[in-house]
Specification:
Elements lengths: L1 H18 L17 E4 L5 E4 L3 E4 L4 H18 L3 E4 L7 E4 L10 E6 L2 E6 L2 H14 L8 E4 L2 E5 L5 E7 L7 H13 L4 E5 L1 E2 L2 E2 L8 H4 L3 E2 L16 E2 L4 H13 L3 E8 L4 H6 L28 H17 L4 E5 L6 H5 L1 H10 L9 H18 L4 E5 L12 E4 L4 H8 L4 E3 L2 H4 L3 E2 L11 E4 L2 H5 L10 H5 L1 E4 L2 E2 L7 H8 L2 H10 L7 H18 L6 H4 L15 E4 L30 E4 L3 E23 L9 E7 L6 E7 L8 E22 L17 E9 L1
Parallel strand pairs: 3-4, 3-5, 5-7, 10-11, 10-23, 10-24, 11-16, 16-17, 17-18, 18-19, 19-20, 20-23, 21-22
Antiparallel strand pairs: 1-9, 2-8, 6-7, 6-9, 12-13, 14-15, 25-27, 26-31, 27-30, 27-31, 28-29, 28-30
Helix pairs in contact: 2-3, 4-6, 8-11, 10-11
Bound molecules: ligand TNX.
Ligand TNX binds next to loops.
């Protein structure tokens, strides 16, 4: 009896589910980047399926393309939707660009039971509405039908320049991969692709007037292995894009409302070109396409007429290929050693009447001369330039936009000079930096540490900026340098989901930003990545280090110890900059103990960086012969060899037995440096009151923080 009853209950349940109207899955507007305003209505929503018609205004080619793309986006989840012309909404999804809004990229989505209207202030605005709609639909939708909740979404971006950078010089990615990258950034409402196509390790764009740029400059004879610059795998490596391919990319990106901004990095990062045309260098070469990473002393010779001809020719061809209003001409990391000893460069400096002053050296002015020359070439073609912040060192070419990468200070400086700036500081925007401190389970990456929450926290317009300065901050961009990224799949791993985090910095009103709510919306977007086959990291799920560490400039940076810790109290030096501070237990294995000798440590910030504070996390426990440091001294250097002292503090020693954890912090005059040396003094003879009087004490340290 019992048995029979059980069977009939199952039968009834089955009957009930198959007869009742099935609940359709619903879309949700909790998407990334989060729209400015979502006003839901309590009425029933729109039922979207493969019967839905997508319409666009008759004769509007751009919106027709938008419509075709929307159908493509919806296809995996819903099947094939029809696209057709219509003068007005006809009960399906209607696209239009009639919205009156001050922001040209604004859009609204109006959803009712009878239909959906996506209205943009422009076709680009309309496209962001399309992106929002496609992201609102569950990526793993089964059954091909979904309810769009009724309501109105009103949205517009915060910044007009929302970039994404891709370095195809260090590693080359085929055109199809670059297009996949374009699809991805479009999904995050990015509207500029900063395409880094030339560098020391390869010249990757065909230039008809200089065929050797790609015949010779696009190939290197090998690549260094890992982080050891002096090694080479001896495997020839190369690749370049033909002008037709570049044009194809430009067209593809434009359909997705993205402008491709090419970067020809000059006068430094030019070994690709110098290997092909050695007469353009100060020494005449020979040069080779670099197999290693870093900054080369060999740059374009600024005293050589053929250099200027080359720049003009190349930029003119670049302007022929790329229709973008802005062309990036680099300007970063151009050491002046060759120019200092090059008779032709010095003659040029003389001819131009440059002398060094308190603002800039004569060689820095020469760089501004060459950048201004390039800028003039492009101005004649109706174009403007973007350059890395070092371009400012010798004065700024007129109308130049500055890309601030060492920090946000460069952008602020540009704004103060009345120039526009794009914020791409390495502390928040360098996606070649690792996403976790757990390097063992990660693909290799560049040294820095940039977790998701840190990216999200970026504030490109600090409160200290005046409204006039703030107005010059035109946008934000993450950079993907590819020294340590040989494959496209790994490139996506580095990019995702950090691109999602930066997209809210680029798009959202800062008042609406909230990391926890972002993190709650992220899994849905990650399902879209999966459905589209994009590799991504999963650190968001491993709750990696988000609550116990306080990352700063030095977190994840390499440290060299110049003095030896006691063998019992030492650890891998990575412990000193892993962002963790240890508990009041001196033998956890994470503490470094120095006995009777000072601690001397050098932190490599990897790039010249503005700093104003050094903190050392210490432990003292005088009963265990561990005393606080007697002094804290900070020295800085650009080359890691010649240091100059910028701060020093002395500390009062305890007079009884005591113990504590203590941050020893020293405020510095704001200084730009790459290497920071920290010296902690140690008690060499313990005082009269102590049991071990006369013997050396210990100092204990587990973290160095540079800010
Ligand atoms: C600095 S950012 C560079 C690049 C490197 C990058 C690695 C900039 C303007 N120059 O050449 O690829 O660091 O993180």
């Amino acid at each position: 009896m019992k048995h029979l009853f059980a069977i009939s209950a199952v039968a009834i349940a089955t009957l009930a589910t198959s007869c009742a109207p099935r609940q359709l899955p619903a879309a949700s507007y909790d998407i990334i980047p989060q729209p400015q305003n979502v006003a839901l209505k309590s009425e029933s929503g729109f039922r979207l399926s493969d019967h839905t018609l997508i319409t666009y205004p008759a004769g509007n080619d751009t919106l027709r393309r938008n419509a075709v793309m929307l159908a493509e986006f919806l296809k995996p989840a819903l099947g094939t939707l029809r696209v057709s012309e219509a003068t007005a909404a006809r009960g399906g999804i209607h696209l239009q660009s009639n919205l009156k809004a001050s922001n040209p990229e604004a859009y609204t989505i109006n959803v009712s039971r009878d239909g959906v209207v996506i209205d943009g202030a422009t076709a680009a605005g309309n496209f962001y509405g399309i992106q929002s709609l496609r992201k609102s639909i569950p990526a793993d939708l089964k059954g091909g039908k979904v309810i769009l909740p009724a309501g109105v979404i009103t949205d517009a971006p915060r910044f007009a320049y929302r970039g994404a950078h891709l370095d195809v010089a260090r590693h080359y990615f085929p055109l199809d991969s670059v297009k996949r990258f374009v699809d991805l950034i479009a999904m995050h409402n990015v509207n500029r692709l900063h395409w880094h196509i030339t560098d020391d390790q390869g010249w990757r764009i065909e230039i008809s007037k200089y065929p050797r740029l790609t015949e010779v400059g696009a190939k290197r004879s090998g690549t260094c292995i890992g982080h050891d610059m002096d090694t080479s795998d001896s495997i020839p490596y190369g690749g370049y894009y033909t002008q037709d391919e570049a044009r194809e990319l430009i067209r593809y990106a434009a359909e997705r409302h993205i402008t491709v901004i090419p970067e020809v990095d000059l006068p430094g990062h030019m070994l690709g070109a110098l290997a092909a045309y050695p007469h353009m260098g100060c020494t005449g070469g020979p040069y080779e396409v670099w197999r290693r990473w870093g900054v080369s002393d060999d740059i374009l010779c600024a005293g050589n007429d053929s250099t200027y001809t080359f720049i003009a020719d190349v930029l003119n061809e670049i302007a022929d290929i790329f229709p973008s209003e802005y062309i990036h001409i680099g300007g970063d990391e151009a050491p002046k050693v060759r120019w200092q000893s090059c008779p032709k460069c010095q003659a040029k400096i003389q001819e131009l009447g440059y002398t060094s002053d308190s603002h800039s050296t004569k060689e820095q002015k020469l760089q501004t001369h060459i950048m201004s020359f390039a800028s003039d070439v492009l101005a004649k073609r109706g174009r403007k330039i973007i350059g890395w912040e070092e371009m400012m060192e010798g004065g700024l070419p007129e109308g130049a936009t500055v890309m601030s990468w060492l920090g946000v200070e460069g952008g602020l400086k540009a704004a103060k000079m009345g120039h526009d700036a794009i914020m791409t500081p390495m502390q928040y925007c360098y996606f070649d930096y690792c996403q976790t401190l757990d390097r063992k389970h990660e693909p290799d990456c560049a040294g820095g540490f940039l977790p998701l929450h840190r990216v999200y926290s970026f504030n490109p317009v600090p409160e200290s900026f005046s409204p006039e300065e703030a107005a010059h901050i035109v946008g934000v961009q993450p950079n993907l340098w590819t020294e340590y990224i040989p494959t496209f799949s790994q490139a996506m791993y580095m990019e995702l989901p950090r691109l999602a985090a930066i997209s809210e910095v680029q798009w959202c009103d800062p008042k609406q930003k909230d990391f926890d709510r972002f993190a709650a919306r992220l899994p849905k977007l990650i399902k879209h990545y999966d459905a589209l086959g994009y590799n991504h990291s999963n650190h968001i799920y491993s709750k990696t280090y988000t609550d116990s560490i306080a990352p700063c400039l030095s977190t994840g940076c390499e440290v060299t110890l110049l003095t030896q810790p006691d063998i019992r109290y030492s650890a891998p030096t990575t412990e000193l900059t892993n962002g963790y501070t240890g508990p009041m237990v001196f033998n956890t294995g994470a503490w470094f103990g120095f006995n009777g000798t000072p601690m001397e440590a050098v932190v490599d910030l990897k790039h010249k960086t503005e700093i104003n504070q050094v903190s050392v996390h210490t432990l003292y426990d005088t009963g265990n012969w561990i005393f606080p440091p007697t002094t804290l001294t900070v020295l800085v250097s650009d080359d890691g060899i010649n240091f100059r002292q910028i701060a020093s503090e002395e500390y009062v020693m305890p007079t009884t037995y005591c113990s504590a954890l203590e941050d020893k912090t020293v405020t510095l005059p704001t200084t730009s440096a790459r290497f920071v040396k920290v010296i902690l003094g140690c008690v060499t003879a313990m005082p009269e009151w102590h049991g071990g009087k006369g013997l050396p004490a210990y100092i204990f340290v587990d973290e160095i923080s540079v800010r």
